[in-house]
Amino acid sequence: MPASPPPTLPTDLPVLQAGDPDARTALVLHGGGGLRTVAPVVAHLASTLHACAPTHPGWDGTERPGSIGSIADLATAYLTRLLEHGERDVVLVGSSIGGWIALEVAVQAAVRAGADERCAGLVGAVVVVDGVGAVVDGEPIADFFALDARGLAEAAWHDPERGHLDPAGLSDEQRALQQGNAATMAVVAGRSMSDPTLLERLGAVAVPTLVAWGASDRIVTPAYGRAVARAVPGAQFVEVPAAGHLPHLENPEATWAAIDSFLLAQASCAPPAADRR
To answer: What is the secondary structure of 101-119 as a DSSP string?
Structure first.
């Protein structure tokens, strides 16, 4: 029986980029809502980093290769692309499912570093913003697929009125994209949006890690976030007030303050720019 092809990203994958291409790279990974949910993160990081936010295969009308059928596959594909580009000291920034992908990339890079020296020093820092993926006792992930538009706003936003998107107001194209994103998420992340092995594997992450969490998140609670932070050696946990599952949209000032402080504190440990590419 022939071996399955390795997970591979499409060559024409859309990527939102901003900032100096010679600066340190930040790979910004979106959640189930698609690229638009992390566009403000890219814009903010661009002042000091080269921020790149790809659209995950299968989201926003893009094709999903058959080789990508899980978050682990997607992480492997991103890790491979970073290695192909000769990246070093990359900052992984992930929101929601993107946080799960970021942690999986960091774990895979750490595990592979012993056999592939290119993986050593590839990841320089990780920022997880209300990430899903782990199974935490007593803190279940909300059943995203069972929520209607109103229920999703109630669970994901500090101010549900601000987050509620009335399906009746969507165009046919917008509705098709939304349904396509949900279908892809069900395949890649699973309906549980979790991996029972993730939490115990996070001990392999050996780079500075920030876990930032909206205080009002009811998709995954702050208690869930603290458990994830405890599983990553030396990780910092910051709770963002007056914000839900997307604190960078609801309370950007507090979110930027947490991220900027974290990156500034660990920047002195980063290699010179010439050693990153």
So the answer is: HHHHHHHHHHHHTTT-GGG
Task: Give Dmax over CA atoms of the chain in angstroms.
Answer: 54
Q: What is the enclosing helix (H) or strand (E) of 50? A: strand 50-54
Q: Which helix (H) or strand (E) covers residue 211, if one does?
A: strand 209-214
pLDDT digits 0-9 by tens, 161-220: 998 888 888 899 999 999 999 999 999 999 999 999 999 999 999 999 999 999 999 999
Mean per-residue pLDDT, 11-16: 94
DSSP code at position 57: T
Average pLDDT, the chain: 94
Q: Give the C-alpha distances (Å, rounded to integers) separating 48 from 37, 52, 129, 138, 259.
A: 20, 13, 19, 39, 12
Domains of the chain are 15-268 (3.40.50.1820)
pTM for the model: 0.95
Q: Are 92 and 125 in contact (CB under 8 A)?
A: yes
